[in-house]
Amino acid sequence: MNAFEFVIVIVILGFIYKLLAAWMRSRELSRSNDDSANANVAAMQQRLGQLEERVQVLERIVTDDRFELKQQFKDLAR
After folding, report:
1. Under a CB-based contact definition with an 8 Å cutoff, are residues 29 and 35 in contact?
2. How far apart are CA 37 and CA 45, in angstroms?
3. Average pLDDT over residues 24-28
4. What's the rounded mean pLDDT across residues 43-68?
């Protein structure tokens, strides 16, 4: 192998290294994006659970007989 072939091989190896490094970085970024998306989904599910609890409490208050009686008193006072 002469010096010219050796230089060509070194240059090709350099390009291959850069391609592999870029590929590995892109895979890592896609994984971190997937992790953040999963975190967003988990946060939204937790928020949805909280909202469902609040709606249940409000339904319980509105369907309570005492609430209806209070509403009737308010209507009479007007």
Report:
1. no
2. 12
3. 88
4. 87
